Amino acid sequence: MCVWRVSLFILLGSFLPAILCDSVSAQIYVDSDSAGANDGTSWENAFTNLQSALLASQAGAEIWVSAGTYKPDSGSGNRDATFQMKSGVALYGGFSGGETALDQRNPSLNETILSGDLNGDDGSYAWDYYIGYSNIGENSKHIITALNTNSQTILDGFTVIGGNAEGSVDGGGGLYINSGSPVIRNCKFSYNRARGANTGGGAILIVGSNPTITSTMFYRNKSYYREPGPGGGYIGRSVAGAIYNSNSSPQIQGCTFLQNKGDGAGVYNTAGSSPLIASSLFEQNAGSGAITNLSNSNPVIIDSTFIANSGRNWDETSGYANYGAAIYNSNSSPQIVGSSFEGNFATDGGAIYNLSSNTSIERCIFSRNQASGWGGAVLNGNGSRPTIENSILHHNVSRYGGAIYNNGSVPTIINSVIAHNVAIGAGITLGGGVYNTSSGGSIIWNSILWGNQDDDGTVESSQIVAGMAVSIKHSIIQGLTGTLNGDPNFGSDPLFVDADQDDFHIEPGSPAIDSGSLVLAPATDMDGNVRPYGAHVDIGAYELIYDLPPTPVPTATSTFTSTPTATPIHTPTGTPTRTATPTLTATATIAATPSSTATPIATATSSATPTISPTPTGTATPIVTPTTEPSPTATPRPIDPDCDLECCQCEAIDVSETKSLIAIALRKMANFIARLGRGNISRTASRRVNNKVKRIARSAAKLAATQQEVLKKLPKFMVTCVLAAEKPPIVPSEGELIANAGDKMVQLTDRLLLLGHRAGSTKRKAAEKAIKLNQQIRALLAKIPFGSRDCPIP
Asked: Which pTM was predicted?
C-alpha cells in the first residue's frame, strides 16, 4: 500500500514538485480455523491457508499466522509445492488470533507449524539411526523457498518440520535460499532431511546468499546418501545435517544445533563461505565436525559452545569414524574466539581437526575431549600453522598427544595453559600434553605445560614430545631438564588457584608472575585484563591482578623522623612490581619471587630511616596522620578532640592477603556467572527461562565487576580504633560498597539457582558455585576492619 505525497519546493525561482512513495506495512491474517470471509483483512476474516496470503501480499506487508499446521500443497501431493517467500514480505507466527501487536504473540505457546508431511502419514517422527524417520518419502522437497529476497524478507516464529529434499536440488528440506538476504529468527527446524549423492543441508541450503539467522533451533535434521547396489550402506558423502553454505556468508547468532547428523552436522561451509557464528550452542551432533569448513571458507566463530559432539559417522555397523567432532577445517582459516569445547569425541582431533589450515584460536577452553587416535583436543596436519593464544586445554585424552598432535605442522602457542591431559598407550612416549612427529614442531611462548601424563613415565616427555623442531621460551614445563630448545624456561610449580576445579589462574607467589615476554604476548589476557599488569607479562592465560603500590615520592617532613632536622627521603630502586627483580633474567627460581602479600617498598635503601619501635608493622607506610610539626615518637593521637586518648588508640591492620583471597574468589565467581550468560542454556527450558537467566547473569556480572573495581581501591593497611570497635563505621566505605553489591548478588544468584533447575544441570551447578563463592567473599570481608569514626581509612 502506498501513500502518495506531493511536496512543493521553490528552487531558483521555480516550483519543483516532488512525489514521494512510502511503503506502509499492512497486516494480512491467516488462521486455519477462520470461518469468516477468508480475505485476510482481519482475524475474523483471515485466510485459512498461508499460500493464499502469500499470493495476496506485496512488499511491505506483514503476514500474521495463528497457531496451527500449514502445508505448501492443498492436498494433491505435489512434492514440488513450496511456500514461496516474497521479497520485502514478513511472515510472523505464534499468534493465538485476536492480537493487535507483534509483542502480544507467544510462539512457544502458540506453535505455528509449516509441515512437509503432504500425506499426513509421518506419525511421531520416530528417529531412526540411518534414515532419520519413516514415512517421509512423499514429503515436500522444500517446505519454504526464498529466491532473490532482500533483508526485509522475514520468517519469524515458525516450526518447520518434515521436509525431504532430493532431486535436482537435493538440499534444503526445510528452507532453500538462493541469491538473497532474508532474516530467519525465533524458529525451529526439526526432522528435515536431504538425500542424494551430493546432498547439502537437511534443514537449510544457502547458495550465493547472506541471510541472518538468529535465536533459532535446529533439531534432528539430517543428510545422507545410500550407496547404490545390493547391501549399499549409508555413507558419509552427504553433508550438512542442518545448514549448508555455498559461496555464502550468513550471520548465525544465538542458535542451537542439537542432534543433527551429516558431515558438518550443524553448519557446512564451502566455496569461500565465511559466516559469522556467534553465541550459539552445538550439542550432540554426529558426523565429521559440528562445523565443517572447506575450500577457503573462513568463518568467524565467537562465544559459542560445543558439547558432546561426535566424529562418528552414522553408519554404525561399518565402524567408520571421522575427524574433528566440533570443527573440521581443510584449506580454510577460521577464527575462533571465546568459545568452549567440552566432551567431544572423534577418532582424530577430539574437538578440532586442521588439515592445511591456519586456524586462529583465541580465549578458548578445551576440556575433557577425547580421540581414540591422535590429538585429544586438536590435531594439526599437512602443513597447518594454527595459532593458539590465551587458551586452556585441560583433561583431554587420546592415544598420542593428549591435548595437541602435530604432523607436518607447526602451531604457535602463546600465553596458554596445557594441563592434566593424558595420552594412553603401551608404555611408550606419547606426549600427554603435545606430541610432535618427526615432521612436526611447535613454537611455544609464555605458556604452561603441567600435570600432563603418558605411559612413558618421564615427566618432561609427558608434557611434550619434541619431534622435528620445538622453540619454547618464557614458559613453565614440568620436569624441565634443559634439553628443550629455548630459554628462559622454568620447571617450578605454577601454583594454579584450583586446577581440580578447572581454575587455572595463578596464585600470588607463582613463578609465572612477570616471567613472560612482550614479544608475542596478546594485548589482553583471557579475562580481558590488559597485559602486562606490572613490569612484565605473566606466563599462562591469566595475569595476576592485584593493587599496584603507589610510587613513593619525597616528602618535606615525616612523623617518622627522630629529630626535627632529619628529612628522610625514600629513593626507589625501580617501579614497584610483584617480583623482587624488575627485569627478566636468564634463570629464575621460586625463591626469587616474593608472594603478593609482601609490601614492595624498599625501606632499606634510605640511609636516613631511623628505627621506630612503636610502629606495629615495621613498614614505611605512615600509620599516623603526618603533621607539619615533627613528632619525637609514633604515639597515636586522637582524631576527635572530644574523645579521650585511650579510647581512640589506633592500630593498622595489613589486609593485603585477605584482599588477594577476595580477588581470587571474585574472579572465580565472575567466571561461573559468565558461564551462566554464555550461549543458550538448555534445550529443555523455554526461551523465556533462557532469556531470563541471561538477563540475571548480565546483572550479576556487572555487580561482580563493581566489586572488583572497589576492591582495587582498598589500601594495603586498614586503621581501626582498638578500644572503640563498637563505634559505627564511616558510611559509605569501600567495604560496605562491596558488601551491598554482595547482598544484591545473593538475590540474583538465588534467582539463578531457582531458574537453574529449569535451565539444565550445568547452569544450575554454575549458579550453586557462584552462591558459595559469594558467601566466601562476605566471610572474608568480615575480617577487614573498615575505618571507625575516630580512625578513618588513610
From this structure: 0.68
Element at 345 (helix H, strand E): strand 345-346
Domain count, the chain: 1
Q: Is residue 177 part of a domain?
A: no
pLDDT of residue 471: 87
Residue 748 cell numbers, joined: 540474583
Instruction: Report the alpha-carbon angle 600-601-607, nearest 5.
Output: 145
Q: Given a cut of 60, is residue 512 above it in pLDDT?
A: yes
Residue 234 backbone phi and psi in degrees, to 5: -85, 115
The Cα-based distances of 96 to 64, 101, 102, 154, 263 in angstroms read: 10, 12, 11, 20, 39
User: How many residues can be counted in the chain?
Assistant: 794
Cell readout for 276 is 559469522
* Tens-digit pLDDT profile for residues 57-82: 999 999 999 999 999 997 788 999 99
- Maximum alpha-carbon separation in the chain: 108
**Residue 602 buriedness (CB in 10 A; 0-12 / 13-18 / 19+):** middle
Query: pLDDT tens across 731-764, in order?
Result: 345 555 566 666 666 666 666 656 555 556 666 6
Which CATH number do you get for residue 708?
1.20.120
Domain annotation covers residue 329: no
Range with lowest mean pLDDT among 21-25, 144-148, 517-521, 627-631: 627-631
* Sign of the C-alpha dihedral computed for residues 591, 595, 597 and 600 taken in this order: positive
Residues spanned by the domain of 732: 654-781
